[in-house]
Amino acid sequence: MADITIGSDPVVVEHEYKTPGAHTVTVTDADGNTKTVTTAPVLPVEISWAMDAGSNFEGVLSATGVKPGVTVDWGDGSPPATPAVSAGKLTERHAFTADGEKTITVTVPSWKDAGFEGHTATATVTVRLPRDLDVQLGYFEDDPRKVSATIRNAVAGKGQITWGD
Q1: What is the 3-state secondary structure (H, E, C) of 101-121?
Q2: What is the pTM of this model?
């Protein structure tokens, strides 16, 4: 409960909710007149994507500020997911099947009868699938101790090679 000062008409008082769901608001003026209303505030949807350790294509989506009926569009052409929601939170696993930048969209539907407007949030992830490297060894006729490695289908950037000696 918070004290408010009522002066001119109308009076505007603000409050920020930290939890989803229905909340009851009761206002009492200086003469004891009381009015109770119910609100279901729209909380911001916050999402995060965490790749599994050692993976560039599989991970877990976490979201807060959601409610049952939420959908997740993975941005990769797969069917949207409708994950379970508990206490305004969801956790959903996904494995991407193609390289590239993907935009994950979480859509919270509206519950107009409860005064809850729908909203969306997005996160962009870069997916790099594991590659089947092609490595061919070549030998030097003039020096059988020397070997060359021809590597194909590798991701550009810094890599490693171990020669085994």
Answers
A1: EEEEEEEECCEHHHCECCEEE
A2: 0.58
